[in-house]
Design goal:
Pfam families: SnoaL_4. Residues 67-196 form the SnoaL-like domain. The chain is of the alpha+beta class. It has helices spanning 20-28, 58-84, 92-96, 118-126, and strands at 99-107, 110-113, 131-143, 148-160, 169-185, 188-204. The chain has one domain (58-217): Nuclear Transport Factor 2, Chain: A. The protein has four helices and six strands. The N and C termini lie far apart (42 Å).
């Protein structure tokens, strides 16, 4: 029996997943187009427009950059907090608090709905390792409204299998497809993940069953 062909990129249900972004890109960079910026219905609005979608003034651009950076910071916080669980599995609750109560999270080994139980779901997979390093980069972030945003960014992850030998590790790379919602908290408004899908593009080494569906069957206490 021959091996199953794996596509270079999967079509994830996300606005920044292949091939959706290419439609706008081809319009924007078309050298024969007089208007380089694709027209949006909201371009015609005089009042009530969102500066996160259309930047008409310097203040709009500052607000856009500020909110965009907050989302990028959230993604980086996700990565470092996940790595920190290798010091204490209870940190997984801090990681889960980056998500909304109605979130949907999908990894190669399975999916989870809702923040309740999310910490345990994540650690059932990751607790097999002794150390981790998650790197998020190449961010593309778009705003759907003042309170909804989407992002695509690359993920490089290294998982150490040994407490004593740093050379024993499993590596993988792919794309995160995430969506976010602005929510109100005790410290003011903040962005949280509503959806996160991890698409693996390549792996290297022994994953100790990380990306296998049965990886989520074990139970741990965090």
């Amino acid at each position: 029996m021959g091996s199953v062909s794996i596509p270079a990129l999967s079509s994830v249900d996300h606005p920044l997943s292949y091939p959706k972004p290419l439609e706008i890109q081809r319009i924007y960079f078309n050298p024969n187009r007089e208007d380089k910026v694709p027209h949006k219905p909201s371009d015609d609005l005089v009042d009530g427009y969102s500066p996160l979608i259309i930047q008409r003034t310097a203040q709009d651009k500052i607000q856009y950059m500020y909110e965009r950076q907050r989302i990028e910071d959230l993604c980086n916080t996700y990565a470092y907090t996940l790595d920190s669980t290798m010091m204490d599995l209870k940190v997984a609750e801090d990681w889960a608090n980056l998500f909304t109560d109605d979130c949907v999270v999908t990894y190669p080994f399975g999916s989870h709905h809702g923040r309740l139980g999310l910490a345990n779901f994540g650690m059932m997979a990751e607790s097999r390792f002794k150390r981790m390093l998650h790197i998020a980069t190449n961010f593309t972030i778009v705003f759907e409204s003042d309170d909804i945003a989407h992002a695509r960014y690359a993920c490089f992850a290294t998982h150490g299998r040994s407490e004593h030998d740093l050379s024993e590790h499993f590596m993988e790379g792919g794309y995160y497809y995430s969506s976010f919602r602005r929510v109100n908290g005790d410290s003011g408004d903040m962005w949280k993940f509503t959806n996160l899908t991890l698409e693996m593009i390549w792996t290297l080494g022994d994953s100790i069953g990380l990306n296998e569906p049965q990886a989520q069957q074990n139970t741990i206490s965090v």
